[in-house]
Amino acid sequence: MEITKKRLCIIDEIRGLAIIYVVLYHFLYDLHVLFRVVNVPWLFSYTMQFVRVCTVVILMVISGISCHLSQGNLKRAVKILMIGACISLLTFILYKDSFILFGIFHYFGCAILIYELSKNIILKLPQKTFIIIFMLCFYITYNVYNDYIYLIFTKLEFSSPNNIFFVPLGFSLDSFSSLDYYPMLPWIFPFLIGTLLGKSVKNSNLPKCLYKEHVPALSKIGRKTLLIYILHQPLLFAIFYGMEFFNL
Length: 248
Prior knowledge:
This protein is mainly alpha-helical. It has one domain. It contains 8 helices and 2 strands; from the N terminus they run αααααββααα. The protein has a two-stranded antiparallel sheet. A hairpin with a 2-residue loop joins strand 1 and strand 2. Helix 1 (9-34) packs antiparallel against helix 2 (46-69) and helix 1 runs parallel beside helix 8 (225-245). The longest helix has 26 residues, at 9-34. The radius of gyration is 19 Å and the shape is globular.
């Protein structure tokens, strides 16, 4: 069987595994927090939070890599931002006190847009050096939302602007609560790391095994990540509300 190099199947498979985790996490979150059907205290353990962050970072890095493998990034960014706007409107109607102001779709749309508008600069950056720099920036800005940063292992606190226009950047807002929140700081940095790695992925002659499907089901799921992410919560909500309606 001849292996074509049209698509990196390993990326699809990793993305498929990650989106399965996301769906399972949201399933447990809905059970525990929103509908209070089952008590799942370990969902917020350090281990689970570490796994959650790692999964999100993987998806963001892959998204950055994919910018080199996709056509029409600008169109894709606009489409994702429109989806994000629809989600904001819908959650504002249903959950006004915790609606999604700047969630994962807003983040991905803005990140892709930033790359598309500045790719001529990004592609000229020294790859290894700036991967390290972006990793450090992620560490430094990880707690911007909590009004502090880490600089040379020193915790530096600051006062948040407390302005809604700064929320997408990662600065906190008094009494701010959201069902989904992924601001540009610190999450832009894994994406930028992906854009740097994408140069090597696109230009290198990678091992043939990376182009081969190892788990076809995962690969297929990975190709439908966006659709799955859009639909999984509405489907879960429909199931849980249906269970409540029929007293199941």
